[in-house]
Amino acid sequence: MYDKPTLMKVIELLRRVRPAVVFAPSPQDYFADHEITSQLVRTACFCCGIPNIVTPGVGPYKAVPHLYYADPTGLVDIFGTEIIPSIYVDISTVMQTKEKMLLCHRSQRDWLLAHHGMDQYIESMKAYAAQRGAQCGVRYAEGLRQHLGQGYPQDNILKTELDGFIKDRSDCSR
User: Fold this and answer.
1) CA–CA separation, 28 vs 169, rounded Å?
2) Which domain range does residue 14 map to?
3) What percent of the chain has pLDDT over 70?
4) How far is Cα 27 from Cα 25, in angstroms, rounded to an integer?
5) Which of 26, 48, 62, 149 is the one with CA 20 to 30 A from 103?
């Protein structure tokens, strides 16, 4: 839930880890828990440096981390409108690893099967990755959006650090 105790835990975690980059679920997604998690992460990234927010045992983290949002499930918002990424990450060479990782998420599979009667989550993941890949000329890609609001870093650290695997929107078609 988006409440003070949960937010304080996320702020404390960021202060302990002191990340340069944070990835969060899309602020618009098919299920509210993804959206709430996104809100918690966004607020914590901004607040982890505020000195009058007290987290016992760990002080403020001076930098606001780079914040990136993952693609939403289905690549669309809750109204069915496609979310257009600002950054594409070529995942073609690691797709088998991603598939193996998703297969380990047994509780998600079981829930989707029981709640939605859906057991095609691996095929769906591949289809979404192929759709993003087609938009930027690779076999598989993931889309990300960088949070560029006031107070957040404006440089694209992923483009700098992962040169060769990252394309921005201007490099890709829709």
Assistant:
1) 19
2) 1-74
3) 93
4) 6
5) 26
3-state class (DSSP) for residue 72:
coil
Identify the H or E element spanning 112.
helix 106-116
Q: Are 133 and 167 in a shared domain?
A: yes
Question: Which among 74, 95, 113 is the end of a domain?
Answer: 74
Residues 24 and 102 in one domain: no
Phi and psi, residue 133, nearest 5°: -60, -45
The pLDDT tens digits of the residues spanning 95-137 come to 999 989 888 877 776 766 677 666 677 888 899 999 999 999 9
Token code pair at residue 39: 């809100």
Per-residue pLDDT reduced to its tens digit, 37-80:
999 999 999 999 999 999 999 999 888 999 999 999 899 999 99
Tokens of 157: 């650290």
Q: How many domains does the chain have?
A: 2
Domain-embedded: residue 79:
no
Q: Shortest CA distance to 129 belongs to which of 143, 109, 112?
A: 143
Say how many C-beta atoms besides its own lie within 10 A of residue 64's C-beta: 18
Can you state the angle between helices 121-136 and 106-116, rounded to 10 degrees? Answer: 100
Q: Look at residue 174 and tell me whether its pLDDT is greater than 70.
A: no
- Amino acid identity, position 132: R
